[in-house]
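ok so heres the complex, two chains, lmk if somethin looks off
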Amino acid sequence: QKEVEQDPGPLSVPEGAIVSLNCTYSNSAFQYFMWYRQYSRKGPELLMYTYSSGNKEDGRFTAQVDKSSKYISLFIRDSQPSDSATYLCAMNYGGATNKLIFGTGTLLAVQP
Amino acid sequence: NAGVMQNPRHLVRRRGQEARLRCSPMKGHSHVYWYRQLPEEGLKFMVYLQKENIIDESGMPKERFSAEFPKEGPSILRIQQVVRGDSAAYFCASSLTGDTTGELFFGEGSRLTVL
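and the predicted structre for the whole thing:
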């Protein structure tokens, strides 16, 4: 069983739709949770960073963490064609190292 | 303020040759991480280095792979006697601090193809 599970998609939605992306994890020791966006042939860029269970909002993006269920989500409101990318969840154990464990990524296509 | 710079962006090697991938971290960053992304897989941690020191190499294959981050110059990931299974995108990330408070900034990757 992988430490972090993520549906690879692809996920295709019309412009303006609400997108929901999810990851589950098996190790309750994970402390910090992140979402990265990766455009084709580019490096990942950090979108959201959360620590505790609950919601964190930044513009059109909302990150949700449920530690009791070992489940994290990223919601994108009013999706745009420019949101078309691969979305990677990532997490770490906290402490003195920033070693990240990534999901496989979900490929999102927002159709104009 | 330049981001993380990786070169070469694309590298083609024949089986048995050596591959050297270079990473210059963002200005002021002394913590470097290397990740590998295989086709259809997520990024896998390989190694974490601070200037002149390897801090965590738990993700490095035991043989043929090595990494360094000298006092002067870029970090280098070296793969000796490459095999087809080494074909992947290799990403470098840097951070200002080595702990979880430091955001990782990724380069655009070096794509290795082994013929």
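quick notes: DSSP finds no helices and eleven strands in chain B. thats all i got rn
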